[in-house]
Every structure is written in C-alpha cells, then in structure tokens.
Amino acid sequence: MRKQLNKSEIKKINKTLNELYDLDEFFSKKDKLELEENEYKIIKKDDKTYFFYHEKLIVPTLKNVLENNFLKKTTVDMGAIKFVTSGADVMRPGIVKIDKGIKQNDVIAIVDEKHDKPLAIGIALFSSEEIKKQKSGKSIKILHYVGDKLWKEIN
C-alpha cells in the first residue's frame, strides 16, 4: 500500500528527524513523499527509500547513510564483518572504536575499520562510555544490514 504524504505529515517527519538525528528540514515541504507499507513501512522520495520504521522509530537506510552520513558510528574489526552482515548483534570484543556522545538507544552506523563504510544500522544498547568499559556481551542491536531483505528490496 502506498500513500502520498501531505505537508503536515512531512513537517511531523522532519520534526522527528530533527529530534533523533539533528537534521534540520531533511525533506522540503515541496518534496513528494510516499509512505509505503508492505513487509516494511518505508518513507520514499522520488521512488528512493530514505527511511524505514522500526516499531515507532524512524531509521535511515544504509543507502541514505552512505549518501548523507549523519549518524554517529561504531567501528568494528575485520573479523566482525561476516557476523554483522549476517544480522548478528555487535558484541563488545569486535568494537575497535566508538564515537563520543552516543547515548543508550541512539541509532548508529556500524562501519568496518579498513574502508570506514557503513555495514549496518543499529541501536546502541548502552552509552559510548559504558560500551568502552564493557569487557564482553552485546553492545549494539542490528536493525538493518548489507544484504538483508530491506537492502535487497530497495537496491
């Protein structure tokens, strides 16, 4: 099901994006945005998917992050890549670097240490300070990764 969004709905989405990601007017009021609901609930502009909903949270797609790079990030070692790109949550031992200022439940990008390219989008289970103190365990819950169903649907 596709629905064209009106100006007030676009304004509401922009407000949410500003609160979540400090993005000021990501979409213009003149943009023709659509909300498409199939297996995923996605926000499209000009047939290009920019965001999807995870529960009530608006999450950027990897392609959007590749083009617009507005998320804080966590860098994982090369050994973690095969797990992350299979949808596994990020474990503390695989993290080699984490941006300062990440709060618990922030949406962040997971990048590889060699190319610094986003592999996945996830939710921080702890703040960056808490993750640095961790010795083991899950640190980031993966929501979207290279090669998942959403990736295949929009690429």
The stretches of 5 or more residues where confidence is low (pLDDT under 50) are none
The CATH superfamily of the largest domain is identified as PUA domain
Q: What is the count of structural domains? A: 2
Shape: globular
Which architecture name of the largest domain does CATH use? Roll
Report on the structure:
- It is built from 5 helices and 11 strands, in the order βαββββαβαββββαβα.
- The protein is α+β, with helices and mostly antiparallel strands.
- The protein folds into 2 domains: 59 residues, Nuclear Transport Factor 2, Chain: A; 86 residues, PUA domain (Archaeosine Trna-guanine Transglycosylase, Chain: A, domain 4, Roll).
- A hairpin with a 5-residue loop joins strand 9 and strand 10.
- The protein is globular and about 50 Å long.
- The mean pLDDT is 96.
